[in-house]
């Protein structure tokens, strides 16, 4: 596990080095901080997604959840400019968690396959944005200055957006490695039947993972809308695929039970570096898409092979025994 | 289209014979919106009223369905036929679905034109487009050039690499590029109409071309994201973001100075021109035929192409001086 993350870290560093040969300014610390900041939202969403994937589920509704929360807080801000920003963030956090809980309850109580349940809510949440806004945008001049300023404000050299991501990383790391719930995520996905015998309620654990993913998506909703200073129906369209790709590249197993905070972060950073590098190294947009796709498939193929080898080892030892 | 003059003539005769008092002293022109309550169309109605005031003997009936459906518009058209208005100028929710009812209107001698969003040729006498590809192509480069008396590097931020509209506009822009010798277009990048990708592409442009003076974004998501990226990079005043956008979406960025000016159609002019054309056709002062010309008051003359479509004018330029007026409209 550790060596895979190390390998990914080395690949990212090599990638930055390679880009720097074509565009030296890319490797400047200020630019790298900028890449980290740009990737913050992806990192946070990947952490939530990872918790869900660990329990053998998937959350396709993250981007739609993010967009709906973004629209809600943007409209609240436009209508009541006096509302304090922390309160809006709390609204986004709670609403996001509630939307995540809808996914979780469907998977837990109704036993709907996760991919179907979240595919459904993806569409419902997007539709809800349209119903809520009537298709209209919330624009920069309708948002209060404080609303737009928060993620950009600089704290000890880094933007608040980056700091929020760092806090989220620490919180999720503590949750996953130091709490019973965090360990239950691994158990519920690694071997659901065994988990039940150890007294873990697998359905409840999955629901908790969805709530975590939803809450992070809610916060990201505010951050996204205020960073780009615009809210519309298609905000973050298709972004759920980037989030899942980040997890998979980071070594989170789609089959559940395997994954780490470090891996998810590195997976997100890998995509972040590629996304930020492609515009500056002057490659045709058609090649850009192909390169992004190839990188994802290569990483996944590598991970898939790593997992398969592990399975074979167990079989062999069973045979010889 | 040979039928049309005959129809018009018989219509005029019919109105003269049958219609009561109002027929001669007042022409009734219906301006049909995609839906009521949309700022863009309210502004167009205002323009139509302006035309009515100028013409004197015209009454504007501004109407439309409550939601943007073809069914709603068909009901509106049927009611207008029943009222026996003199002309219908419609922005269609569907190019084909409205054809039967509009045909019926024309058979009753009502002048039918479409504007903004067109109707299939058999359902109207002419279509008034707000602008045309060559006019837009020229305008977007002119917007950049006007603020760069000494010339400089300019980049284009488009939507997707396969977007038909944007590619046509950029091609039209490149055709007139020799007219702006000091302007150098250094790159065309694609933001895919995604806020985050457009933002990143803009950051990339600023890094790759430190001397960049302007970014042209002929797409509403792109121009907003680019303006925000320039603002966040602290390059307001150094890089001017321009292109096509909506006043309501761009107001904040014009105010911040990231965008000095941008363009899009002016709904007031569009409503004014539609009313003028409808009046001139309804009173037989002009004829809608391929290659023909129809006067439209202060907006000049519209030339019709083989599909009896015509372009009104250059896109209208919005800047600090008029953004306040338009930002609540559309």
TrEMBL record, chain A:
UniProt-listed InterPro entries: ABC_transp_permease (IPR001851)
UniProt superkingdom: Bacteria
A GO molecular function held by the record: transmembrane transporter activity
Membrane topology value: Multi-pass membrane protein
Transmembrane segments annotated in the record for this chain: 86-108, 115-138, 158-176, 207-225, 254-274, 286-306
GO CC field: plasma membrane
The keyword Transmembrane is assigned to this record: yes
Keywords, in A-Z order: Cell membrane, Membrane, Transmembrane, Transmembrane helix
Protein name, UniProt field: Rhamnose transport system permease protein
Organism: Amaricoccus macauensis
UniProtKB/TrEMBL annotation, chain B:
Signal peptide: 1-23
Domain Periplasmic binding protein span(s) in chain numbering: 29-285
Any Pfam family hit: Peripla_BP_4
Compartmental location: Periplasm
UniProt keyword annotation of Signal present: yes
Domain of life: Bacteria
Recorded GO MF terms: carbohydrate binding
GO CC annotations, alphabetized: outer membrane-bounded periplasmic space
Family (UniProt): Belongs to the bacterial solute-binding protein 2 family.
NCBIfam families recorded: RhaS
UniProt-listed PANTHER family: ABC-TYPE SUGAR TRANSPORT SYSTEM PERIPLASMIC COMPONENT-LIKE PROTEIN, D-XYLOSE-BINDING PERIPLASMIC PROTEIN
Name of the molecule in the record: Rhamnose transport system substrate-binding protein
Organism name: Amaricoccus macauensis
């Amino acid at each position: 596990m550790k060596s895979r993350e190390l390998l990914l870290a080395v690949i990212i560093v090599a990638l930055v080095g390679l880009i720097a040969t074509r565009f030296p300014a890319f490797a400047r610390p200020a630019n790298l901080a900028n890449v980290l900041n740009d990737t913050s939202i992806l990192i946070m969403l990947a952490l939530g997604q990872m918790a869900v994937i660990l329990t053998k589920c998937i959350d396709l509704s993250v981007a739609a959840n993010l967009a709906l929360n973004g629209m809600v807080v943007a409209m609240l801000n436009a209508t009541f400019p006096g509302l304090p920003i922390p309160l809006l963030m709390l609204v986004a956090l709670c609403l996001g968690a509630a939307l995540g809980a809808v996914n979780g309850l469907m998977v837990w109580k109704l036993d709907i396959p996760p991919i179907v349940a979240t595919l459904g809510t993806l569409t419902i949440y997007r539709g809800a944005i349209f119903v809520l806004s009537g298709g209209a945008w919330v624009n920069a001049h309708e948002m209060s200055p404080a609303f737009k300023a928060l993620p950009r404000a600089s704290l000890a050299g880094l933007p608040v957006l980056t700091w929020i991501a760092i806090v989220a990383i620490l919180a999720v790391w503590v949750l996953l490695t130091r709490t019973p719930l965090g360990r239950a995520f691994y158990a519920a996905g690694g071997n659901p039947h065994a988990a039940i015998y150890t007294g873990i309620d697998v359905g409840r654990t999955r629901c908790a993972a969805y709530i975590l993913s939803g809450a992070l998506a809610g916060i990201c909703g505010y951050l996204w809308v205020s960073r780009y200073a615009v809210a519309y129906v298609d905000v973050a369209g298709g972004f759920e695929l980037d989030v899942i790709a980040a997890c998979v590249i980071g070594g989170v197993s789609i089959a559940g039970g395997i994954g780490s905070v470090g891996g998810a972060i590195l997976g997100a950073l890998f995509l972040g570096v590629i996304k930020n590098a492609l515009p500056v190294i002057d490659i045709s947009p058609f090649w850009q898409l192909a390169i992004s796709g190839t990188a994802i498939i290569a990483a996944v193929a590598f991970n898939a092979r790593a997992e398969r080898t592990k399975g074979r080892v167990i079989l062999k030892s069973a045979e010889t025994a | 289209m040979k039928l049309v003059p005959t129809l018009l003539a018989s219509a005029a005769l019919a109105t003269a014979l049958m219609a009561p008092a109002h027929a001669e002293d007042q022409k009734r022109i219906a301006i049909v919106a995609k839906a009521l309550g949309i700022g863009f169309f309210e502004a167009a109605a205002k323009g139509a009223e302006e035309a009515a005031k100028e013409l004197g003997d015209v009454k504007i009936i501004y109407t439309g369905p409550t939601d943007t459906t073809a069914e709603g518009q068909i009901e509106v058209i049927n009611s207008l036929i029943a009222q026996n208005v003199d002309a219908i100028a419609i922005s269609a929710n569907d190019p084909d679905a409205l054809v039967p009812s509009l045909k019926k209107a024309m058979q009753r001698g009502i002048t039918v034109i479409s504007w903004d969003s067109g109707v299939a040729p058999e359902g109207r006498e002419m279509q008034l487009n707000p602008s045309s590809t060559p006019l837009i192509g020229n305008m977007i480069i002119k917007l950049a050039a006007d603020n760069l008396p000494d010339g400089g590097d300019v980049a284009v931020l488009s939507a997707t690499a396969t977007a038909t509209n944007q590619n046509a506009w950029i091609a039209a822009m490149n055709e007139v590029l020799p007219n702006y010798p000091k302007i150098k277009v250094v790159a065309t990048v694609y933001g895919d109409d995604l806020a985050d990708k457009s933002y990143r592409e803009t950051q990339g442009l600023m890094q790759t071309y430190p001397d960049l003076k302007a970014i042209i974004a002929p797409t509403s998501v792109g121009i907003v994201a680019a303006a925000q990226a320039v603002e966040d990079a602290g390059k307001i005043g150094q890089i001017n973001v321009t292109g096509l956008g909506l006043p309501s979406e761009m107001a904040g960025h014009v105010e911040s100075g990231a965008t000095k000016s941008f363009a899009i159609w002016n709904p007031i002019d569009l409503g004014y021109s539609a009313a003028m054309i409808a009046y001139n056709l309804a009173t037989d002062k002009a004829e809608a035929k391929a290659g023909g010309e129809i006067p439209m008051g202060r907006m000049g003359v519209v030339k019709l192409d083989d599909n009896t479509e015509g372009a009104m004018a250059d896109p209208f330029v919005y800047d600090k001086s008029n953004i306040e007026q338009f930002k609540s409209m559309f």
